[in-house]
Design a protein that fits this description.
Shape: globular
Order of helices and strands: EHEHEHEHEHEHEHEHHHHEEEHHHHH
Helix content: 40-55%
Structural class: alpha/beta
Number of helices: 16
Strand order of the largest sheet: 4-3-2-1-5-6-7
Bound molecules: nicotinamide-adenine-dinucleotide, magnesium ion
Number of domains: 2
Radius of gyration: 20 Å
Number of strands: 11
Length: 391
């Protein structure tokens, strides 16, 4: 069996740690060839000691300098250290890499994912913001380079599994009537509108079922995560938004479903543990052990379903509006949301302000720019919108 050489982008985060756990479980099948982080020097150092990757990259310059001296002091300088944004792109494009795991959060993942897709890698995609901001461009780039996209966002991985082993992302699946994205509803599912608007960062990052990084946890609380996932599903599966529905399912056991033309609905179920979708994509088209616990059918009493409440959580409507308005709107939606989530986490604005400003950002900026023809255009729009809201 050939060993797959993995480039892990965002190695110190939640997706990164789950991926490292799986690599450690299967040293005969996977090698951590390279890894990146933003500024977590301690996390990166532990990872270099444990996995001895060929290359690592720190996005943050000062953190890169600190890591450099620590690697030397500990006799680990055999691992090549790259620093900065170009380093991330080089890591992802390295000819020895087979598979790139895209676990960077936010627009920061866009260029390295682009680098991986343009060089024809297998891309295990967690970074949904890349497709939200440049979906059409990614579809074209993957077609040019023959890159294979394997979704590891749990909902999209569930749909991918339901579509069967012959399915290839970015093509419209045959005989499908609709896709059903499940959503937990987040920590504020049953809260009043007033309580939601004044929720604190501590309350927002406490997800009922999943342990995740802070940004996606806040996105789950606003349901912006599902909104971004709707746009992600639209591009990944080449399905119109009108044929993608969102169902609230508080237990997070069904990860999503596909309804076929004959009325059959297939679902993928499992414990809410990201190691399942990551293991599925790492081993695809085979399967490997993940150490994820089995579902306990004697304790699992019920699976509930609800219709999303668009009044208390308007994010899904924003996403549908953005998709109907063209590619610039999705970039504005994402940029405004990223800025507002960062401000909310710093205690700089109320939870309710995220909804207000995202809506404002869509109406202020969506019609202001021409359709982007390349990644430079996407980044320029992102930068302009971001600077307007980052007070
Ligand atoms: P996280 O905050 O736990 O980790 C983010 C990683 O990205 C870290 O390694 C960090 O060093 C790196 N990073 C942060 N800012 C960076 C920058 N400016 N430049 C370069 N690297 C940077 O986030 P996460 O929860 O692991 O989420 C990562 C991505 O995966 C997000 O796009 C998220 O939507 C998606 N995702 C996560 C989960 C989950 O369970 N955590 C599930 C589905 C999808
Ligand atoms: Mg998800």
């Amino acid at each position: 069996m050939t060993v797959k050489r993995i480039c892990l982008l965002g190695a110190t985060g939640s997706i990164g740690k789950s991926t490292l756990d799986l690599i450690a479980q299967h040293p005969d099948q996977f090698e951590l060839f390279s890894a990146s982080a933003n500024s977590d020097v301690e996390g990166m150092l532990r990872l270099v000691q444990a996995f001895k990757p060929t290359q690592v990259c720190m996005r943050d310059e000062a953190a890169g300098q600190r890591l450099s001296s620590q690697l030397k002091a500990l006799g680990l300088a055999k691992t090549e250290l790259l620093i900065g944004g170009q380093g991330l792109n080089n890591l992802a494009a390295h000819p020895s890499v087979d598979t790139v795991v895209a676990g960077i959060v936010g627009i920061a993942g866009l260029l390295p994912v682009w680098s991986a897709v343009s060089t024809g890698k297998s891309v295990l995609l967690a970074n949904k913001e890349a497709l939200v901001c440049a979906g059409e461009l990614f579809v074209q780039a993957a077609k040019r380079s023959d890159a294979r996209i394997l979704p590891i966002d749990s909902e999209h991985n569930a749909i991918f599994q339901c579509l069967g082993p012959a399915y290839r992302c970015f093509t419209r699946p045959a005989s499908v009537r609709r896709l059903l994205l499940t959503a937990s509803g987040g920590p504020f599912r049953q809260w009043s509108p007033e309580a939601i608007r004044s929720a604190t960062p501590e309350q927002a990052v406490k997800h009922p079922n999943w342990v995740m990084g802070p940004k996606i946890s806040v996105d789950s609380a606003t349901m912006m995560n599902k909104a971004l996932e709707l746009i992600e599903a639209h591009w990944l599966f080449a399905m119109p938004a009108a044929e993608i529905e969102v169902v609230i399912h508080p237990q997070s056991i069904i990860h999503s479903m596909v309804e076929f033309q004959d009325g059959s609905t297939l679902a993928q179920l499992g414990a809410p543990d990201m190691r399942t979708p990551i293991a599925h994509a790492m081993a695809w088209p085979h399967r490997i052990q993940s150490s994820v616990e089995s579902l306990n059918w004697s304790q699992l009493r019920e699976l509930q379903f609800e219709v999303p409440d668009n009044k208390r959580f308007p994010s899904l409507e924003f996403a549908r509006h953005a998709l109907a308005s063209g590619p610039v709107a999705s970039i504005c939606l994402n940029a405004t949301n990223e800025v507002m989530v960062a401000r909310f986490l710093k205690g700089d604005c109320a939870f309710g302000a995220i909804f207000d400003q995202v809506e404002e950002g869509l109406s202020r900026f969506a019609g202001r720019f021409p359709i982007p023809t390349g990644l430079d255009d996407v980044m320029a729009i992102d930068t302009e919108v971001r600077s307007f809201y980052a007070h």
